Amino acid sequence: MKFEFIGGYSEVGKNMTLVEVGDETVVLDMGLYLPPVVGYEEGDPRDLSREDLIRIGAIPNDNKVNKKNVKGIIFGHAHLDHIGAAPYLAKKYDCDLFGTKYTMGVLKTLFEDKGKKPRNNLVAMEFNNRYKLCENFSFEFLNMTHSTMDTALVVLYTRYGNIVYSNDYKIDNHPVLMEKINTEKLKEVQPVKVLVLDSLYGNIDGKTPSESVARDMVKEVVEELKDSKNAIFFTTFASHIPRLRSIVDYGRKLGRKVVFLGRSLHKYADVAKELGIVNFVDVDIVGYGNLVRKRLKDINEHRDEYLVICTGNQGEKGSVLTRIAEGDLPFEFQSGDSVIFSCRTIPTKETIKNREHLEKLLKENGVRIWKDIHVSGHGF
Ligand SMILES: [Zn+2]
């Protein structure tokens, strides 16, 4: 049994691990490392080729991988640092791509964004369903708790013993919208030969609070704003479906119309809705250009009738919140309006700078800023 670590571990992104038994190989994750793409200033990053992306360090360098031996590519969860490189790399592998339903739903949209039909089959798997992949490998997905839906702990069964791979997780005994870890099932996986665990903040002592604590934090903010006649804007990670669920649930109680604004929110929420993971029936999900403008004009005139959830939690350029703050969209923040950041600022130079810029603009308009209404999806 041989392991090869192509990317990830010491960096937040670019996850890709190879496991080899005999002349067969399984790939675990193919992730993106976002900062080089976000900070790319020599043109539109969407035009970058596979080779360009490897050169700037945005995707794993798999040039030396013996692709003929790879029998399957298995994805643990739907975050971009785990699936984001697949549309660039997977086509060189003559094998299927496997993940849980939500993961594969999101991956499908990534291929569609690039306007390409994937060359590989995308196979959506159930949890707790052992699958014989090839002579040397069977695998199974077990429930794991994290900040996006259908996160899995991957178990590889080989003749040399079982391998457990869990990359990004927290042990949450009171999760929102997802199943708890199935500890009985985990016991059945014993004996484990190799355990591969990695999680951001894994080096910090302490205990990450449950997502139900974040739900209570959202509730408290909303209760404080119940008599407000001003605009209320929430922003969070677009893939954080449990958090969106909590904001929608308490937003409804204010009697306001809940609306999602922004492309990535549209993408992640739509997949969750289509798969029946969440019921966002009375929520308007508005993703694109003119429709966002049109809706914002209406929100500007009826600011006490809406609760907005929009993109821009990291102050990203081109996000709805940043564009409003920069005067690029037809909504004007006024004194007394609230912007709630249900997230943590990712500690990279670029995001810290972007968030400072955004908050400065919001404060100039007298906006009340609520920060860190959040608990992490990573265990420590
Ligand atoms: Zn993750």
Produce a short descriptive summary.
The chain has 380 residues and is α/β, with parallel strands linked by helices.
Throw out a few tags for this protein.
380 residues; alpha/beta; Metallo-beta-lactamase, Chain A; Rossmann fold; 2 domains; 6-stranded parallel beta sheet; 12 helices; binds zinc ion
Task: Please describe the topology of this protein.
Blueprint: E1 2-7, E2 16-21, E3 24-28, H1 34-38, H2 50-55, E4 70-74, H3 80-83, H4 86-89, E5 96-100, H5 101-113, E6 122-125, E7 131-132, E8 138-143, E9 152-158, E10 161-167, H6 183-188, E11 192-198, H7 211-224, E12 232-235, H8 241-253, E13 257-261, H9 263-274, E14 284-286, H10 289-301, E15 306-310, H11 320-325, E16 338-341, H12 349-364, E17 368-370
Helix pairs in contact: 5-9, 7-8
The structure holds zinc ion (ZN).
Number of strands: 17
CATH superfamily descriptor of the largest domain:
Ribonuclease Z/Hydroxyacylglutathione hydrolase-like
Task: Return Rg in Å.
Answer: 21 Å
Oligomeric composition of the shown chains: single chain
Number of domains: 2
Q: Using the coordinates above, name the CATH class of the largest domain.
A: Alpha Beta
Describe the fold and architecture.
The protein folds into two domains: 2-198, Metallo-beta-lactamase, Chain A; 211-370, Rossmann fold (3-Layer(aba) Sandwich), CATH 3.40.50. The chain has twelve helices and 17 strands. Helix 7 (211-224) packs parallel to helix 8 (241-253). The mean pLDDT is 94. Strand 10, helix 6 and strand 11 form a beta-alpha-beta unit. The strands form three sheets. Strands 1-2-3-4-5-6 form a six-stranded mixed β-sheet, covered by helices on one side. Strands 14-13-15-12-16-17 form a six-stranded parallel β-sheet, with helices on both faces. It has 380 residues and is α/β, with parallel strands linked by helices. The structure holds zinc ion (ZN). Residues 77, 79, 146, 168 line the site of zinc ion.
